[in-house]
Amino acid sequence: MLMKAQPALKGERTQKEWCRLFERVLHGGDAGAGGSGVFGKVESSGKDDADRPLEAQWFYVPEMDQDQERAAVIRAMMPRPAKRSETKKYKQYYWRPLDKISRWDPEDEL
After folding, report:
1. What one-character-per-residue DSSP string does the chain give?
2. For 50-83, how does the pLDDT look when each residue is reduced to its tens digit (9 = 90+)?
3. Where is this region: Disordered (predicted)?
4. What is the mean pLDDT of residues 99-106?
5. N or C terminus: which one in the chain shows less Cβ crowding within 10 Å?
């Protein structure tokens, strides 16, 4: 997605090299991995439609950023002041598929 938004980056590194760099930066900022704690990670235990594990969700923790000027700028761009502790946990939502519909109800017709 980043390569589509910033095509000039393609000339600097390959996509694989960019992915490795992002992983290193994110894990270096993850307190759980012994980093600075600038980034938090919510692990997902779910699977997608192709039965592949879902990716973890990363978020920025401005309170842990040593560069308070950068933290203030990013905090001003964030939609909410901070992440609630409940949103830092993975939650699995279940849904029940609808029964097979053999016909439409008259009120549903276009």
Report:
1. -HHHH-GGGGGTS-HHHHHHHHHHHHHHTBGGGTS-SSEEEE----B-TTSPBPPPEEEE-GGG-S-HHHHHHHHHHSSSSS--GGGGS-------PPPPP-S--GGG--
2. 888 888 888 888 888 888 998 889 888 877 655 5
3. 31-50
4. 69
5. C
Alpha carbon distance 12, 22 (integer Å): 14
Length of the chain: 110
Phi, psi of 83 (to 5 degrees): -80, 130
What's the rounded Cα separation, in Å, for the pair 71 and 21?
Answer: 21
Euclidean distance between CA atoms 66 and 58, whole angstroms: 18
Which of 58, 71, 54 minimizes the C-alpha distance to 31? 58
Single-letter amino acid code for the residue at 66: Q
Number of domains composing the chain: 1
Q: Does pTM top 0.70 for this prediction?
A: no
